[in-house]
Predict the structure.
Amino acid sequence: MQDNSSQLNSIFSTRFESLLIKEVGERSMLITATAGQVLITAGQNIKMVPMVMSGTLKVSRVNEEGQELLLYYVREGEGCAMTFSCGMMSQPSLVKGAAEDDLSMLCVPVSIMEEWMTKYPSWKKFVMATIVNEFMDVINSVDAVTFKKMDERLVNYLKEKSKISGSSLVNLSHQQIADEMGTNRVVVSRLLKKLEIEKRLLLYRNQIKLLKEL
Amino acid sequence: MQDNSSQLNSIFSTRFESLLIKEVGERSMLITATAGQVLITAGQNIKMVPMVMSGTLKVSRVNEEGQELLLYYVREGEGCAMTFSCGMMSQPSLVKGAAEDDLSMLCVPVSIMEEWMTKYPSWKKFVMATIVNEFMDVINSVDAVTFKKMDERLVNYLKEKSKISGSSLVNLSHQQIADEMGTNRVVVSRLLKKLEIEKRLLLYRNQIKLLKEL
DNA sequence: CAAAAGACGGTAACAATGTTACCGTTTTCT
DNA sequence: AGAAAACGGTAACATTGTTACCGTCTTTTG
């Protein structure tokens, strides 16, 4: 087990008390994943809880037919509410977790994280803040699916993807977009075509260029 | 502040350690509400966290136009994940809470509940279990809205309502049903009419009788 | 390298759901 | 009793979901 305290300091020093930082450095392991790699699927047991050091972890719900719905992203400096809560209750995961892009995380065994809950106020606060934030993200997903129109959801989705990658080019097929949004490929193609006619983006094979007006 | 330990024992004795039961009895207050009463709306601050002693608490999301979506119910012996997590982070509520039927709850100030998190393992476990369960309920709502057809959702909804009230009569207008399901009154009327023609239920003004075949 | 297989996205046709509008009836308010 | 509001049926149209088919491009395979 290596010492990860140097990376930790830059991200978590303002949030965690020094004793906790020291212990994270000693007792966590650094796990990396490449873009697209699936880290956990619904039904699997949770042995470790992650803190994202770089990259983005994508958490989504998958139904029986393989249809998917994006629930929330875990970004640098954040934890994952599902692993915190399921992990502590020895419940299998309800969701799929995958690397949105190249990802590195500090991971701590569930048993240690439970110990920290009572030992370190700053850890307890971190866990509860994570749960609130990601609960809110899920509720926003519910809101969007329930109340928003498809074209608005699609535009928001593309903007979010562009923001994460830091580029106006989104490298996804219509099928991939439909899957993540929990809708149908034909619907996505139809709306994208409409947006292209409105000169808000340009369509290529497996690629979409967002224009300023979007 | 009255002593609520007698009611507590019957519901929570298997779950809470005796010291905690004693403290809940001393430091909580019993709050009652009549069916339909709204207890908290999105944006309000959370001062107390509830444990339901009898009846059902309904938690739902309301958007700008007043459209609503049922997220989960809190039943006898259960706590509310949203109040636990938002309360601890001093975040205003994200949701609306209302009495589904006549309701009594033991309520504890947020500050005390935080103290208990580190003091009583059984309380920590109760809070985390509540969060996991209700997170799962919310995810099931998301699943239903995203992947299920409306007629199936409607039938499930009616069965759930019947189960809660313990009666095959559901006393709700089509508008109320549409609101809770996050859809449109006309859609509900249309599907209910279809179900009546299929002899799965009977329609009356403000009332629906579920038949065995449903 | 060439043929086959698969991925991709455009399109049509239809089904399911959402939206607005209008109507007659029943209930509530005054 | 009369006015106003709530309720639910229905029509017409818009949006979204679903299946099917097609031509093009990419990858696989022999």
